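Entry type: protein chain
Record version: 2
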Amino acid sequence: MEITIEYEGGSLIICRKVTVEDKEQWNNVVKESLNGTFYHTWEWNEVIEKGLNSEALSVAVEDDEENKLIGIFPFFIRNLFEDYKINKYFPDISKNFQIGCSPHHKLYSFGGPCVLSSITNSEEIYKLMFDFVNTYSKKKKNIIYHLIYPYHNCLDSALIQNGYTRTGIKKTAIINIDKDLKEICKGFKKQFSKDIRRASRNGVIIYESRNYKEDIDLYYNQFQKLLIDRIIERTGNSYRRVSPALVPYSYFEKLRDILFPQKMARLFFAEYNGVKVGALINFYYKDTIYLGHTSVLRGEYNDLNAYKLLIWHSIVDGKKNGFKNLDLTGLHHNELDGQYRFKMGFDGQIKEIGVYKSYRYNEIKHAKAIINELRKLKS
């Protein structure tokens, strides 16, 4: 499937699915685009496609005359009811209702198309990519709607012009680490600064894994499973709230095999008296660190403040290596929630990210009717 148009100066522009030969040029577009983030990179999309066994529709726009990519669009297909009980009890029905999403929102990430910043008429390139995924969706028929949330607002107008509606807002907190460490620390909650100093005095040490091939297994078996158990306990084993946290081992395998060798991901441990009491995986791209996965032991280790010390180490280490921002990867919508209050204790600046949808109304009504019928059968 290809879409070809005549562009400025008479050159031909081709919109198509990517091939493995596009990797270097794909990453170049992400690097040079205003909207490009870690979650647009070829490597991250490979982790999602292979690690989550997800159907990917990776789209590229090529300038045929110059034989180079000028636009990219990571796009995934997932079951609409993937995190609902309908998927558990009626998987065949669930497969008939899907959504197209950029990013794949099983995990914290961002998406939408990217175009080289040097392109003067980027609106036409954006439209070409949106037309491509729309054509694909119409042929597939069971895709109910598209969901996109871009990290930067430079995409807002392009999304609206191409039929997307802003339906909500996600928030994250970003710590500016391009300052003196004392200035950064001054912005913390006073108690946070005390807790970080106390953790160091009490002998909690932070160090980077030097054997990530084995340590990723340790992380998954000791810390990721602990996090899932905690969510099960906190939610009363609510399927809808537990299901998004059930990230398969294959995902962590792909982190290990694809991201760690290139230092796009790094694993840190917090250790106390020879016991690993906390672990953190960070993602690195351009000038930003993204908090990836974090888990700490509770119970007798609860007062060690390992989580705070891991984040403080990320700031110190990131600043040392020339990074300017640490994205704490999302804020709870309720300002009274513990997660919100904890992350804002690090004096991060709130960043709002628009949630955009493109609906196909008849299919949505049909899906709701199916759900209602299933609920009646169950009752």
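Comment: Residues 178-323 form a domain with the Aminopeptidase fold (CATH 3.40.630.30).
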